[in-house]
């Protein structure tokens, strides 16, 4: 695959760069920084040398004075290195560290202070549609996702099949994050049914035959490995009683499809619909983290069942988005958005659907999902602005 420009901005100071495996962290670093000293802790000999002697980092930095940017891949493998990094940042103001990681769990578990604010935290996500431009196909993305490692593969389906199993073996099993690997594997399948849905841990526990507390721990592992995320319900100045459970999403539509069991009782339209909603979720999450950290992503659902899939709320943005995996729009499809606007008249409301054209129905702007995603760009301060013509 040819080089594709990523929206993640190059930091001027030291930073943690987190992201699931396969999102292109190493590739981004190589193309963003021309001269670097690179330390890959995934290589067993390098890992062992730093586990034995973290102070070895000082000697490497001193021996490479021309390299003022030092990259340490998978920093969570040797958390003790952070003390050396901290000291070097204090002593050498012209040195910048880029510390990559596919998990923050070990750093948090060992109580490591993430450099006391001396390094900013960045995240790299799967591709956004607007990064791909004309290369983007919504139909393809809903099948195999937008992970760079998958899109660059000759057999994307084969890469997806092994993606999660590699995570389980290399992250979960080797790091001892879960004692029962077979139980964790059953949980992965069971929790896939919660994608784009309210997360009820009791139901998931029943499906995978595990204790509720065990399932709660497993969900935390998924989040720390950056494989999943939750969004909370929007309750600001609520005029109606709302639900309390968060909504749950796997981080990439292709990964979701690879995990989700399929059989005679599983309707393809249902899987397609949750994949589309997850695709929108991962784009909105990337949009906020790349350039709009003041904005927050929510959903809205009343206890009577009236729902809006996404609420973007922050300085200069108050947008309600409903996602429908249908080429036709019915009045019922608009009910949640119109109810939300009744309670929040300042909000802009938009429905995303699988039809071919932008159209206003009953005062609701309806946009093809592919159109919205292609025009969602971090330089646009409010996604609703692109709805006025791209």
Automatic annotation (TrEMBL):
<dbReference type="InterPro" id="IPR041682">
    <property type="entry name" value="AAA_14"/>
</dbReference>
<dbReference type="Pfam" id="PF13635">
    <property type="entry name" value="DUF4143"/>
</dbReference>
<protein>
    <submittedName>
        <fullName>ATPase</fullName>
    </submittedName>
</protein>
<feature type="domain" description="AAA">
    <location>
        <begin position="14"/>
        <end position="132"/>
    </location>
</feature>
<dbReference type="InterPro" id="IPR027417">
    <property type="entry name" value="P-loop_NTPase"/>
</dbReference>
<dbReference type="Pfam" id="PF13173">
    <property type="entry name" value="AAA_14"/>
</dbReference>
<feature type="domain" description="DUF4143">
    <location>
        <begin position="171"/>
        <end position="325"/>
    </location>
</feature>
<dbReference type="InterPro" id="IPR025420">
    <property type="entry name" value="DUF4143"/>
</dbReference>
